[in-house]
Amino acid sequence: MPWIQLRLSANEETAEKYSDWLMACGAQAVTFIDAKDTPIYEPLPGDEITYWSNTVVMGLYDASHDMDKAISYLQGIHPEGKNLKYKLEQLEDKDWEREWMDNFHPMKFGERLWICPSWREAPEPNAVNVMLDPGLAFGTGTHPTTALCLTWLDSLDLSGKTVVDFGCGSGILSLAALKLGAEKVIGIDIDPQALQASLENAKRNGVEDRLELFLPKDQPTLKADVVVANILAGPLRELAPTIIEFVADNGLLALSGVLENQANDLQNLYGQWCNMSPIAVQDEWVRLSGQKRP
Ligand SMILES: C[S@@+](CC[C@H](N)C(=O)[O-])C[C@H]1O[C@@H](n2cnc3c(N)ncnc32)[C@H](O)[C@@H]1O
Q1: Is 146 annotated as a binding-site member?
Q2: pLDDT tens digits for range 259-294
Q3: Which residue range(s) make up the domain with 86?
Q4: What are the residues whose beta carbons fall under 8 Å from the beta carbon of 207, sequence distance 6 or more?
Q5: What's the CATH number where 265 sits?
Q6: What is the 49 CA–ligand 1 centroid distance (Å)?
């Protein structure tokens, strides 16, 4: 069935209200996207959902829906009235899930590492191949924040090392570390669906006996040789004492999910405990890394 999508610009205060309005004038579903491509993070249990400061609220309507009537309704209720800015898009009738799968291709990171969709052939069978189906979790390698961490992991000698993957999502970084020779990985995520996806991907790659997965409330106390955390700058700041506790003396740390203008602040914060390396940049995202001082 073809669809019509109606987009409205909103912010943290208005997003929820606009969603209600779109539903009230016949939308079958409403989605929120960040106008600046910030990754999606789960709220803490019990926390309110927080919207981005530049949110796009999108209502999906059946193509036969009376859109003139829907727009009149919105103009009647929105403070901008007849001047309300909106965008209407006709969506082709596609199999959206398949389209997403078709766009996820095997990708090489660094010298040795390939991330391959589990439903495709690995292009270099003798390379370090991670076969991945992200399911509902974040992490395919297409986002720069993940790519920066994959390249970093590929650059390390992980043989026999213990790794903590803080915010493991699909398990992509955990599996990359294991396939690159790590002895054991501890994956932590606030989202149970992410832990499920990580476990399934570990089984797919035959490394489930070396991956331990935890919700933050159950996370163990341990010192790891390598810690990688791809979560936003805010949580990286707030969770700094927790994250740094996981890093063994002389252990290595990488932090991702950070925008260029947030890097200095975090570089100084983690510089209290680590000798920080120069940042790595991809698009507007940066990766911080360093070595913990004894
Ligand atoms: C950007 S994704 C990264 C996924 C994957 N590691 C990657 O590099 O693609 C961030 C992940 O961190 C998780 N997360 C967010 N806040 C967290 C927190 N406070 N503690 C643990 N995990 C968290 C999210 O559920 C999400 O799966």
Answers
A1: yes
A2: 999 999 999 999 999 999 999 999 889 999 999 999
A3: 3-93
A4: 175, 178, 179
A5: 3.40.50.150
A6: 16
